[in-house]
From TrEMBL:
This is Pyridine nucleotide-disulfide oxidoreductase domain-containing protein 2. It comes from the Eukaryota. Belongs to the carotenoid/retinoid oxidoreductase family.
Length: 349
């Protein structure tokens, strides 16, 4: 439990809660949940980074590197199913427009749920394996809100300069509603009962401060990573436009308390609840890691026992996305490891 570790080393509740947010990012878990832990960037624990040009620029960089080595990339071409030979081996994929792409190996970075429950005939898979994939915990607490503002937020704790230019506090991750770990636990408890948090954990970043090309001069892009919001609301309520707007208003009210004038600076917003993240990006349950990063779903159990080595029950088909070991995060470890396994097998072929 991260909460216990923080209690042993620190006295300041705001510091403990701020550090605790890194232990529960994207997880339907409280700092008091067993197995909660922290991440790192280039050896720096709890660190994150910006991608110049936005996250899409990272995808473009990977695509350019692959194309330079002879890869052919087909965008906006949905895969209908994996092609199987008479021997049950993967032989390529079929696209929704009827095109068939033949290959000796198939690597899928879709979630285990999509890969094995939607793209393959179930009778080709072991029953216990299908059951294990169905039982993967994909609950997600995340609602992402992208905001366009016409000026930088000015926080009561650190007001803006008169010229309105960015200051150091605008260049980092800003944690709100994190005065104590009890607030994070309370927000988690509300979501666990099917209700969006009334005082959600908010991580506010302003990437346009470091990457001015993301917004017009004088304006900015504010990225809000918030939790906790349940994938399924209580009493069968839908995540409709009214529910999305109500939650976003709650988030904005919270920010307003820290930075008066924030709501008046908003010129546009994009709200992505767990169902939206699932529908748009194919994330099961809206889970940004393709499945919970809890101890029972890591290491040899990811995505299922006996299949943590990137192989699948289908010969020639490999899982290389966040649902494979070691899990999610912008690091590419699962893809790199899966590629090495596939290349080794390809050598045998």
């Amino acid at each position: 439990l991260l909460g216990q570790i923080l209690d042993q080393w620190f006295e300041s509740e705001p510091l403990k809660a701020t550090l605790a947010t890194d232990a529960v990012i994207g997880a339907m878990a409280s700092p008091h949940t067993p197995g909660s832990g922290m991440g790192r960037l280039e050896g720096r624990r709890g660190a994150g980074g910006y991608v110049a040009g936005g996250m899409g620029a990272l995808s473009q960089a990977i695509a350019s590197a692959a194309a330079a080595r002879g890869a052919h990339i087909f965008a906006e071409k949905a895969v209908c199913h994996v092609l199987l030979g008479r021997d049950g081996r993967a032989q390529g994929v079929a696209l929704q427009d009827g095109t068939e792409v033949r290959s000796k190996l198939v690597l899928s970075n879709a979630s285990p749920q999509i890969t094995f429950l939607e793209l393959l005939p179930q009778e080709q898979l072991p029953e216990d394996f299908v059951q294990q994939i169905r039982q993967v915990d994909t609950r997600s607490p995340v609602t992402k809100i992208n905001v366009a503002v016409d000026r930088l937020p000015s926080f009561l704790a650190a007001p803006n300069a008169r010229d309105g230019q960015p200051l150091p506090q605008h260049q980092c991750s800003i944690h709100l509603n994190c005065e104590g770990t009890h607030l994070l636990h309370q927000a988690f408890t509300e979501a666990a009962h099917g209700h969006p948090s009334s005082r959600p954990m908010i991580e506010l970043c302003i990437p346009s401060v470091l990457d001015p090309g993301l917004a017009p001069r004088g304006c900015h892009v504010v990225s809000l990573f918030t939790q906790y919001t349940p994938s399924v609301l209580a009493v069968g309520r839908p995540w409709d436009e009214q529910a999305r707007d109500a939650y976003a208003d709650t988030v904005f009210d919270c920010i307003e308390a820290y930075a008066p004038g924030f709501k008046a600076s908003v010129v546009g917003r994009d709200i992505l609840t767990p169902p939206d993240l699932e529908r748009i990006f194919g994330l099961p349950g809206g889970n940004i890691f393709h499945g919970g990063m809890s101890l029972d779903q890591l290491y040899f159990a990811r995505p299922a026992p006996s299949y943590s080595g990137y192989h699948s029950p289908i010969p020639g088909l490999y899982l290389c996305g966040s649902g494979a070991h070691p899990g999610g995060g912008v690091m590419g470890a699962a893809g790199r490891n899966a590629a090495q396994v596939a290349l080794k097998d390809f050598g045998r072929l």
